[in-house]
Amino acid sequence: MNTKEAYNNWAETYDSVENPTRSLDEKVVRTELIDITGKDIVEAGCGTGKNSVYFAKYAKSLQAFDLSENMLAEARKKVNSPNADFFIHDITKTWSIEGESCDLVSINLILEHIENINFVLQQAFRILRKKGRLFICELHPSKQEKGSVARFTDDKSNKEIKLVSFFHSKKDFENACKSAGFINIIMKDWFDETNEDIPRLLSILAVK
Ligand SMILES: C[S@@+](CC[C@H](N)C(=O)[O-])C[C@H]1O[C@@H](n2cnc3c(N)ncnc32)[C@H](O)[C@@H]1O
Fold first, then answer.
1. 140 lines ligand 1 (CB under 6 A)
2. How far apart are CA 58 and CA 141, in angstroms?
């Protein structure tokens, strides 16, 4: 099953089934991105919109896109705001967003499905205004090394589906940020409250 089909099937239950990765990312965004009032924000791979709700509440504008129409449909149900625009787009294709037109690009829990992260970060750099910020939060490489991968139980077949995933080390993320042109790259490890051995998420904040 390819990534688009998988998320189209997962969309209906994505929000309701317990998912510590999703829940921690929700907290991280609201902890790390507090100064978003009045900003123009682009959210790549917005999924069912758990972070879109937060961005749309404070931003001047939110442009949010995703590959899966079913995930996007859930996001549209959550956010009914005139400043928010949701559209289908593949992050691996040139983003249909004007250059130097936004203040923040947020990419959450999607890059594990993307082989070439350099292209993605180049696109983020292109659309950001000078001093604009890139925020990334992903399943931690140490967690991936222990075998963690996005997975869900498909309702139709009742089988567990593991999604297509690629490994990116901290160094890979840093190099991709630098070669796109980003500076002031800050990485943070985020842990579950109950397990402090291996971080669950890695966040990256960088400036154009
Ligand atoms: C784990 S979900 C995360 C959704 C949301 N960012 C969040 O934090 O809840 C990953 C999302 O990435 C989207 N995605 C995967 N590959 C993509 C691609 N090539 N282009 C755009 N979106 C993609 C999926 O459809 C899915 O909605």
1. no
2. 31
